[in-house]
Amino acid sequence: MCGIFAYLNYNVNKERRYILQVLFNGLRRLEYRGYDSAGIAIDSSSENPPSSSPSCPNNSVISPPPLVFRREGNIETLVKSVYQEVAETDLNLEESFSVHAGIAHTRWATHGEPAPRNSHPQSSDDGNEFLVVHNGVITNYEVLKETLVRHRFTFESETDTEVIPKLAKFVFDKANEEGDQTVTFCQVVLEVMRHLEGAYALIFKSRHYPNELIACKRGSPLLLGVKIVLTREQKAKAQGMLPEKCDKDDNREMNPDFRYWPHQGEELDPTKGQINQKELMEGDCNGSAFHDDKFLLKNGHPKELFLSSDANAVVEHTKRVLVIEDGEVVHLKDGEATILKFDNDKGKHGGSLSRPASVQRALSILEMEVEQINKGNYEHYMQKEIHEQPESLKTTMRGRLIRGGSCKAKTVLLGGLKDHLKTIRRSRRIVFIGCGTSYNAALAARPILEELSGIPVTMEIASDLLDRQGPIYREDTAVFVSQSGETADTLLALEYALDNGALCVGITNTVGSAIARHTHCGVHINAGCEIGVASTKAYTSQIVVMAMLALAIGGDTISNQARREAIIDGLFDLPNKVREVLKLDQEMKDLASLLIAEQSLLVFGRGYNYATSLEGALKVKEVALMHSEGILAGEMKHGPLALVDETLPIVVIATRDTCFSKQQSVIQQLHARKGRLIVVCSKGDAAAVSSGGSCRVIEVPQVEDCLQPVVNIIPLQLLAYHLTVLRGFNVDQPRNLAKSVTTQ
């Protein structure tokens, strides 16, 4: 969805040109979230000091109006227009700022069409006294808007966001009218938050509070990045040596090397946020003088601070981050980050705006490299992520599969679940809850979980569960599956399940996400950063994690031992099988060239591969913008058969499993009606599924039936990718879609 980004440099001289580049690059890193317009706000000048203005209450100090740039379209359109406007106004790009606060935003339209007036930052008035960038939806904006209109505020946009800066100005003006005491920026923002309903992540910038930023959130993701800038002398002092002995460059970031969540060996519970407190200075100059978070957040040393919806926009600057929790307000001022906990029940006290006490939070270290968010030698992120799957699956399984010795059984270790396995095994039922691709991954894993655990497993689409207020019991285990860990409907369903007393398990790709923090236990899929909107490697890693979940819950009963060991052997060999199926790339490209002009595609699957049919159809739908439908093959005669003719392309998934003979029957019936068939089958089965060469056959390696969906989806991912490229569409940012759906 929308992406928000901010950059504040404190006691670090940066030219306006550099500040613009940081903001633009931050937005580029957020492009994959989906957007239709973008904007930024920067300070107009460092040479004009703040002054008293007769137009402001009590002649309060106010800085020159910030510069706001907003454009419909992509980020490069914004960049071009900014530099064009700069040239026309003779704005000095070389002007240096020792302290500066800039904000930026990519908008995914929810209220009002894509247009500059609806883009962010949204402003309080013509003088830009308060500016806001926003990710989320304010559900009571119409009521707030009516109130503000009665107080003679005028609105220019159709957005729900515009009420926020105008409400901030109203609160500020009202507070200054009521008394001589100066109202603080935090007090203004906290009072605004008390009136807002819905989900949001917000960053405030104000002329009344120059060089300050305030960030707050409820529901939508937001994090703070901290980059300490040390001079050579400071580095030397930290290590008790002379400056000449520490000959690293000035203005380099302290780069501690400890893990937020281990990938190998004994795992940690992701909800407990355990951190190895080892610290290393960058390069060869080692030391631990700056291990205290208070040094990072509360000192006046030179630093650069970043606020972002996503770690992708921060990792190239720093790995030291604070994941902002719901209800927290982060105030950046004078090189310090103050964290307050918002309490909606605490309103005004004694006629003045209240300020809650500050709280202490620990910083985390991102386990991410810049290389992970670059395309490398690939043309598109989706292409890169499809071909990364052999390695991403290895990473998912690393440290979790135990082969055992001659006397020991093969087993699975999921550290994040080990303290809760007994409770899960006693569950009345297991409920998988997710949306889109994550739902499909859970559906693929349902049969093996039922088989090994003997526990009934039900499936719920998060939004539908909420709409129905479906029953969730204390005896249930609710498993929440989300790639981002921030999916709005899934988070609301999690809140609903927690309220009903269920044990809540999270499966996510994002350490520190809302699902990882708020579930009782969980498993991080370790698939690596996924930029393309259409999920590929996260889907296959989710299936593998849920297969391991089934093995862990199923225990080591003798009756299931042979089956369990066969699955574990299959998991070990799975990356090689995926590497083998990726060799079909050119074959799928050739097939895509034959389907380029088609308007519709049907995909039939059953058993484990019903989920494959849904996911394959979803991929084609998402990126190639072709109507496609995944259909349970057992339902073919109950309506879908009416669509079959010689022109409609139909994919049938018929790999070897207990449903193979039934799929053979489906193929025969479709062929009898002159269906245009494309059959995915196991190697060596071409003759069994295509008598007389009547259909196009795609042969894939055979693996254990519960792992077959991982292999079978690869050709359909490749087909969707090549179809999209050949049809000339944007494969990484498909029309109208966003990577992380953080609004309902």
UniProtKB/TrEMBL annotation:
Any single Pfam family the record assigns to this protein: GATase_6
MF terms in GO: carbohydrate derivative binding; glutamine-fructose-6-phosphate transaminase (isomerizing) activity
Keyword Repeat: yes
Chemical reaction(s) catalysed: D-fructose 6-phosphate + L-glutamine = D-glucosamine 6-phosphate + L-glutamate
Listed InterPro entries: GATase_2_dom, GFAT_N, GlmS/AgaS_SIS, GlmS/FrlB_SIS, Ntn_hydrolases_N, SIS_dom, SIS_dom_sf
Chain ranges of the Glutamine amidotransferase type-2 domain: 2-335
Keywords: Aminotransferase, Glutamine amidotransferase, Repeat, Transferase
GO annotation, biological process: fructose 6-phosphate metabolic process; protein N-linked glycosylation; UDP-N-acetylglucosamine metabolic process
UniProt EC number: 2.6.1.16
Leading EC class: transferase
Domain SIS intervals: 420-559, 591-734
Pathway: Nucleotide-sugar biosynthesis; UDP-N-acetyl-alpha-D-glucosamine biosynthesis; alpha-D-glucosamine 6-phosphate from D-fructose 6-phosphate: step 1/1
PANTHER family: GLUCOSAMINE--FRUCTOSE-6-PHOSPHATE AMINOTRANSFERASE, ISOMERIZING (PTHR10937), GLUTAMINE--FRUCTOSE-6-PHOSPHATE TRANSAMINASE (ISOMERIZING) (PTHR10937:SF0)
NCBIfam families in the cross-refs: PRK00331.1
Protein name (database record): glutamine--fructose-6-phosphate transaminase (isomerizing)
Species per Swiss-Prot/TrEMBL record: Morella rubra (Chinese bayberry)
